Amino acid sequence: MPTITLTQSACSAGLSAEWVTIDDEARVNFENAVNATLGGAGIEITRITISGRVRNSATAVKRLRLGFKPAVSSGRDTWSTSGGSSVLDAAFTAIDAAKVSGTYIYRTFTRVYDGSNNATAFALFSTHIRSSFAASTPVYLGIIQPDASRAISIYVEGYWKITVTYELIGNIPTANVTTAEIGATEITTTINKVVTGSSTTLKYKIGSTVLHTEAGITGTTHAYTPPTSVGQYFPTTLTGTLTIEAETFVGETSYGIVTTSVTLTLPSDKAPTCSTTLSKAWVDGVDAGAQFDVYVQGKGGVRVQTAGTGMYGATIASYSVTCEGKAYTTADATHKPFTGSGSVKVYTTVTDSRGVVSTTQEDTLTVIPWKPPQISAFSVQRVDASGKPLRDGVRMKATIKATANSITVDAAEENSIEFQVEYREKGAATWTEAKAVSIAGISVDGGYVLKDANDAD
Fold this sequence. Notes:
Elements: E1 3-5, E2 8-11, E3 19-22, E4 28-32, H1 36-39, E5 43-56, E6 62-69, E7 81-82, E8 85-86, E9 92-95, E10 105-113, H2 119-134, E11 139-144, E12 152-155, E13 161-168, E14 172-175, E15 179-181, E16 187-192, E17 199-206, E18 209-217, E19 221-224, E20 239-250, E21 253-265, E22 273-282, E23 295-296, E24 300-309, E25 316-323, E26 326-328, E27 332-335, E28 342-352, E29 361-368, E30 374-383, E31 395-403, E32 408-409, E33 412-413, E34 417-423, E35 432-439, E36 443-450
């Protein structure tokens, strides 16, 4: 497997200093230049070795601790992080105690990181190196002596090296676009063949769902247009991530998988549909015969039944109906009674699971003004049977002047006036009906001779 030795380009202690003493306050940071191969696609780091040279003149065993820092100037306790963890190894013994006090001993060592040696630090180190180089950012090796009141010397020039072992994990796919509209944009995947004599299987996926598989590709490109049906796999967001997975084969042997991704977008008609059915509604107590085919102020209302359909896999999340300043949140809503008249607006909105709101539908209703009938004059006097005034007459004559609102349906007046007069003797507890009169119109101005129900005349 190929190896790369990272190039040191700067050191916090200065590369000309040769030996530098590190105590519990000091540190040495090395800057290692960006390596494009390690930052590119199609490789997997399998081992990292860090070698260095140290010396000790004391009678105590000396330890070191290694990690990666954000900058060459980073302080002793500042480390880069990966997945919320510091990119840092455990402390390890760098050199034994000197056998004779005041006599230097020297050691050149190599510390190995892979899946079986210092595995936790290996996972952090390899991820940090790959991600930093992919972002064209150098990596900074940090060296500290972790034990208080002790010191160790390190040689900064020539001996400290980071060697990275890697393997090619397969042919590398790249897409011609970074975003694609479903049902419209053709995605061309170019396969950079790094494994000689290989074929490639491409899988187009959203999450774990495989949308399309193209096996046995021996060429270098493949074209795929995601259908509109893939919107069902991101029903709550405006975009989805299409992963293009390239698995390399030589014969039946897999050489690994390399991926790239494209952001999927929705067509312009992504808003949900909205349609309404409007019908008359009436307040309680309005007789069936008075429920005309018009909208009436005070007595009538409107029932709004809404139908909505989510687009490209979305579902309907909510409904909203607004009329005369009142809001309703059901697909079947009734607003009654109308408080105003004339042109009354009904606004209906459908919201889908992606939060995309359809164009609000506006309906305009004509509401006929209405108010209770008005009695402008009313009087009663005794009369004879013919209706002439008579002081001791046995009949009463009611004179009334009243009006009601016009309710016109198909050019025909549908409203009318009906009134009833009742009487009771002085001191009596109950009223007796004297007369019930229906007028085929919306006004009355006249006199009516009244008699009770028992009067045969």
